[in-house]
Amino acid sequence: MMCLRKSFRRRLHFWLRPIDQLVKSEFMKSLFKTIFRAVLVVLLLARVSLFAQSPTATGTINATLNNRNGIALVFDTDPSGITLGATGTSAITVSFGTISAFGPLSAGITRPTVTAASFTVSTVFDVKVTQGGLNSNSYRLLANLATVAPAGLSYKVDAVTLNTNQQTIQNNATYGNDIAHNLDLVVSTAAPGAGGPAVGTPLTATINFTATAN
């Protein structure tokens, strides 16, 4: 009887071992598949995330400056005057063309007076002064000849006869506006060598303007 029991137990144990191994093998396969799928999903999501993100670069600029106050002066063509050369700048030219006590004059040039001793030709120009960073509401405009005027000629700005010394043309002028000024050229009718200007020769003069903040 004891022999039969031992034999039965051995046979039962023999048959149970493959079943147990089979169960363990199927469980491991299922577990492996689950882990593999999870890893695959993570890799796919990581790949999608990498492709979805665009590469970027960053940088900074540290800007520094030194703010400076001051004023600026420019000359503009006046509608009633001649067209200025380099209008809108601080260094312009005014060409009166050919002038005389009688006869036609260039556009924008007038001849307000003619006397036995002289005649005057005139034009209008604009001055614009702007300022920045100043505690100033107005400016003073001064002018002077750079050198002595040619013989027989005199220059006026707004009735102020110019020489090489600075003279006030306008006080309390406002910033940012085109302010009209007259430029007059008084020409002697005397003959050359007798106090009159040279004839048939271009005559030039340079007038300096200065704007000073009040």
The proportion of residues forming helix, as a percent range, comes to: 10-25%
The description of the largest β-sheet is: 6 strands, antiparallel
Any idea of the CATH class of the largest domain?
Mainly Beta
**Average pLDDT for all residues:** 85
What is the number of domains?
2
CATH third-level topology of the largest domain:
Immunoglobulin-like
Describe the structure.
The chain is of the alpha+beta class and 214 residues long. It has 2 domains: 1-54; 70-213, Sandwich (Immunoglobulin-like). 24% of the residues lie in helices and 32% in strands. It has 1 helix and 9 strands. Strands 1, 2, 3, 5, 6 and 8 form a 6-stranded antiparallel β-sheet that branches. A hairpin with a 2-residue loop joins strand 5 (153-157) and strand 6. The longest helix is centred in the first third of the chain and has 51 residues, at 2-52. It is rod-shaped.
Map the helices and strands.
Layout: H1 2-52, E1 70-77, E2 110-114, E3 118-132, E4 138-145, E5 153-157, E6 160-161, E7 167-174, E8 179-188, E9 207-213
Antiparallel strand pairs: 1-3, 2-3, 3-8, 4-7, 4-9, 5-6, 5-8
Keywords, please?
32% strand; rod-shaped; 214 residues; alpha+beta; six-stranded antiparallel sheet; Immunoglobulin-like; three-stranded antiparallel sheet
In short:
The chain has 214 residues and is an alpha+beta fold. 24% of the residues lie in helices and 32% in strands.
